[in-house]
Structure to design on (671 residues):
């Protein structure tokens, strides 16, 4: 298991400025430029520490929001490519259905991959519904646009005998010829986030890494769907390094201190869903079936589906925004306490999902200050990381289904060969 | 199926043909009384736009141009002659796109609180951004008497709910960007070569009467008229006055 340090790079000073929406409609007059300048530099310093601590780095982006100041994950990626020498650098990710120019995405990733000498890991995300308004991006059929952008970016980065032509449904170019080429061949490893097994199957078909966030039940179902599809394709069981999972983490000298850290990081969960109603469910973003079910229940406004809900091991649904630390630990949303406790919690998680090779650890969030963040980072990397690095795939009851699928695929291949 | 496109058409009444192109919610919501009023004077043909209501957006449709050409096919399919072309709100935009292309089968054009053109400067939105409004505010802005549009979605069938969801998605698909207009439409409105009536709800807060006046000013033979005591959908809020205005302008039996 590898561990990737993540912070949402929030601006908590503005969290009390509008109880209705911290996104899209909150004016930037609520930013004190000196506070913001300090914050951005501080977070870059914290990410840069990962090089010496043996941690890898994860970055993301959101738009028009006090919950995340990183408005393009490409920017800190470029900075950290120079400030670090060893850490792997994951963006998770680029909302490629909302980027108007996929070729430019490929150019930027190639450049940074060269500067970092091959340390870039390239995550593509659909993005949360609130990104639609900020990006002014058409939400209907956005996943069709996502996959076309994906195909174009990878072709642009991996073609060595360009230029080539691209006249697709969403993107049109006549001379695609990416200079410079990326360092990694044919392109950096691709990650895609997903909350649902159906997207997991799409990711498995392309054999990219798949990641999910803040629900070990979703992670378990997602990894299983990926493994099953891989078996159906007649391929060997993927290693756990294909799988990623994001959780909030607090490690202290005492249980109280670890829980205090995570409670502050949890400010993220308490604020991330504060957004004006019309932006929570853009037309076409959620499936027709999900929207029909919401209307059937009489819900005519707000987000559809189980946003910010998570299932505990006993099947009970809890709200991530209001649940206790103990409940969130049970659901695998948080790992918190002393190093021993956190190691045990992560082992339990790893067993539950059948093995996960990449833990995306939100060790900073909300109001957790620099001193406490450094302590959280240091304790995690010195006391926890060495004891979870050797965690492997574990057998799950569902493995039989996967083995049966693999045998059937092998039989099918044999029959086809005859 | 017309021209390879799945469609669902409501027909009512007897008399000269009138092709009615609905606004965002479809031809039947929240009330179909206006169709019955028009049906006293016309043979009303009221299709669901491709992608709204019962049918999915055709895989190869991209924008309102496609809907306009589809309706020219439909007009041929019904062999319309001397028909009235009438469109409301989003459907008014489609009607204008049809009229700049080909009016051979139509003798009169009626635009009702129509979208479709850009009037104000780049920093002034002509048409209220329904995708940035809470659901309740869309209704209270659309109607002078919002009670008209109240509905209990728990009492509807899954098929009816799917129609609501499809219509919302389709309106977004065709109207997301540029928002509810074609920047080039006004440039070509001079091509509309049939008498035109631009009807507007006097209290429309989705798209104000002055926008309608600008629409009428861009069409060579166009009259502008207000319908009192009505918001964005005068055919829904004042079906009698609406039908009277259309009949007075376009004939009918």
């Amino acid at each position: 298991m590898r561990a990737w340090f993540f912070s949402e790079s929030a601006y908590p000073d503005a969290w009390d400025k509008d109880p209705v929406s911290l996104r899209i409609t909150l004016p930037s007059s609520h930013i004190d430029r000196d506070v913001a300048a300090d914050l951005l530099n501080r977070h870059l310093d914290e990410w840069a520490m990962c090089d010496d601590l043996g941690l890898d780095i994860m970055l993301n982006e959101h738009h028009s929001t006090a919950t995340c100041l990183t408005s393009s994950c490409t920017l800190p990626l470029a900075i950290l490519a120079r400030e670090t020498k060893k850490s792997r650098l994951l963006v998770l990710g680029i909302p490629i259905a909302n980027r108007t120019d996929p070729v430019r995405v490929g150019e930027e990733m190639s450049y940074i991959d060269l500067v970092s000498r091959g340390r870039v890991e390239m995550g593509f995300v659909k993005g949360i519904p609130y990104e639609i308004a900020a990006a002014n991006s058409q939400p209907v059929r956005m996943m069709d646009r996502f996959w076309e952008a994906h195909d174009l970016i990878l072709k642009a980065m991996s073609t060595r005998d360009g230029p080539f032509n691209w006249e697709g449904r969403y993107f049109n170019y006549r001379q695609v010829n990416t200079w410079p080429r990326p360092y990694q061949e044919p392109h950096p490893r691709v990650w895609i986030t997903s909350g649902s097994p159906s997207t997991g199957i799409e990711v498995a078909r392309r054999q990219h890494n798949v990641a999910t966030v803040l629900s070990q039940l979703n992670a378990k179902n997602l990894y299983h769907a990926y493994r099953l599809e891989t078996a159906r394709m007649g391929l060997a069981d993927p290693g756990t390094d294909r799988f990623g999972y994001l959780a909030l983490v607090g490690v202290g000298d005492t249980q109280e201190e670890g829980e205090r850290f995570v409670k502050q990081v949890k400010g993220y969960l308490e604020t991330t869903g504060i957004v004006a109603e019309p932006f929570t469910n853009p037309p076409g973003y959620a499936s027709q079936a999900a929207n029909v079910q919401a209307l059937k229940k009489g819900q005519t406004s707000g987000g559809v589906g189980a946003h910010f809900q998570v299932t505990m091991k006993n099947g009970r649904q809890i709200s991530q925004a209001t649940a206790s630390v103990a409940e969130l630990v049970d659901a695998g949303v948080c790992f918190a306490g002393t190093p021993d406790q956190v190691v045990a919690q992560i082992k339990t998680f790893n067993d539950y999902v059948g093995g996960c090779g990449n833990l995306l650890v939100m060790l900073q969030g909300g109001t957790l200050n620099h001193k406490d963040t450094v302590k959280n980072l240091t304790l995690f990397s010195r006391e926890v990381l060495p004891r979870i690095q050797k965690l492997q795939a574990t057998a799950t009851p569902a493995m039989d289904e996967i083995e049966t699928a693999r045998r059937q695929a092998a039989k099918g291949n044999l029959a086809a060969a005859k | 199926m017309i021209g390879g496109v799945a469609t669902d058409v409501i027909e009512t009444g007897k008399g000269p043909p009138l092709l009615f192109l609905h606004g965002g919610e479809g031809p039947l919501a929240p009330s179909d009384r206006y169709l019955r009023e028009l049906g006293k004077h016309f043979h009303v043909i009221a299709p669901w736009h491709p992608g709204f209501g019962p049918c999915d957006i055709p895989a190869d449709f991209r924008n309102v141009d496609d809907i306009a050409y589809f309706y020219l096919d439909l007009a041929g399919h019904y062999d319309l002659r001397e028909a009235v072309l009438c469109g409301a709100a989003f459907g008014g935009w489609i009607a204008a796109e049809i009229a700049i292309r080909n009016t051979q089968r139509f003798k009169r054009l009626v635009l009702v609180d129509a979208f479709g053109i850009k009037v104000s400067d780049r920093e002034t939105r002509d048409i209220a951004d329904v995708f940035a409004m809470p659901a309740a505010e869309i209704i209270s802005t659309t109607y002078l008497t919002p009670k008209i549009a109240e509905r209990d979605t728990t009492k509807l069938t899954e098929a009816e709910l799917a129609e609501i969801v499809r219509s919302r998605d389709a309106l977004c698909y065709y109207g997301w960007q540029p928002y509810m207009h074609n920047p080039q439409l006004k440039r070509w409105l001079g091509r509309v070569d049939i008498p035109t009536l631009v009807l507007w709800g006097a209290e429309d807060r989705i798209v104000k009467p002055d926008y309608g006046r600008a629409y009428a000013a861009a069409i060579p033979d166009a009259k502008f008229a207000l319908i009192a005591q009505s918001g964005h959908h005068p055919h829904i809020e004042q079906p009698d006055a609406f039908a009277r205005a259309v009949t007075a302008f376009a004939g009918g039996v």
User: Anything to note?
Assistant: Chain A has a mean pLDDT of 95. The CA atoms of residues 256 and 337 of chain A lie 7 Å apart. DSSP finds 14 helices and 13 strands in chain A.
